[in-house]
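Final report, Chapter 2: Outcomes

The project's central promise was a pipeline that accepts a single protein chain and returns its three-dimensional structure in a standardized token representation, suitable for archiving and comparison. That pipeline is now operational. To close this chapter, we reproduce one record exactly as it appears in the project archive, with the input sequence first and the structure output second.
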Amino acid sequence: MSAAEVKNLPQNLPSGASDMAHIVLTFDNNKLASALYGQFDENLARLEQKLGVDIRSRGNQLTIKGSSSAAEQARRALDNLYGILQKGTDIGQSDVDGAVRMAIAADDQLTLPTLERKGKVSAAQISTRKKTIYARSLNQDAYMRALERSELVFGIGPAGTGKTYLAVAHAAMLLERGMVERIVLSRPAVEAGERLGFLPGDMKEKVDPYLRPLYDALYDMMPADKVERAIAAEVIEIAPLAFMRGRTLAHAAVILDEAQNTTPMQMKMFLTRLGENSRMIVTGDPTQIDLPPNTKSGLVEALRILDGVTGMVTVRFNEGDVVRHPLVAEIVKAYDRDGKLARGLGVEG
């Protein structure tokens, strides 16, 4: 049996309630069904809150009542989550939220690169030996598919959307599969003006504070001992952007994070490092530029200059893609509103 058996049950509906639906799902594995519901049915309660439906559980059977669209979205979300559980991956509240976002977007979602309408939620995924990550929003889905098929991908958007985390995960997957020979991770150390000599310690100790988010993502994807060995063997290289000059990076997955803090010259230098059989991923948030006043952002300029270049894909995230604490999305929205208001008043924002 498939993940769930769906029955649409006829019912006597009051006048004006013709848009209401009644869906029954029957799951084929009681243990997975229990994990799907969550402790004290907390996952079902979250779906009810997010979609405005009523979900009742009885053993391995669920009954969903609500508007036709909301009930169908709940069915899609549950089907998606059950599929994740069938693959041996646990789910939490963030997975439930992601499944809801994907289910709501499914009606309008287009499958890349064929641009065919999807009849069922089938989130893109990145699998390493340590964990499997599923897309939690429509833009994450597009981003992960772009990473699979394109040599140069720009992931643009606010903090918390997963653009850097997914880039590192994809690079780790490519390394594990032998599709690249090494990973190169870089960020501009803009706070130190790329002049790191005044900081204490050896070079690794000087640059580590700026590159910590990249380390964190790596350790989440790969066992710590393998990460350490790969760094020692220079299979994984983590270095500030200044160290990229004069190199050709072949057979590598190359990531530039916080790219909004590059100058145009630095960005051109980085992009022209792309070598044979390499993948390059550039991530950044043009609204969070920390460069000195009157200094152009290399990211902003590159997006303008390279628009339409064959082989390059740009995926733009927004506050709806924030997968951290829900409050982060509200913070992003508030700052975005304030920025738009300031620009409308003719004030630098």
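Archive annotation: The longest strand covers residues 20-27.
This record, like all others produced under the grant, will remain available to the consortium after the project formally closes.
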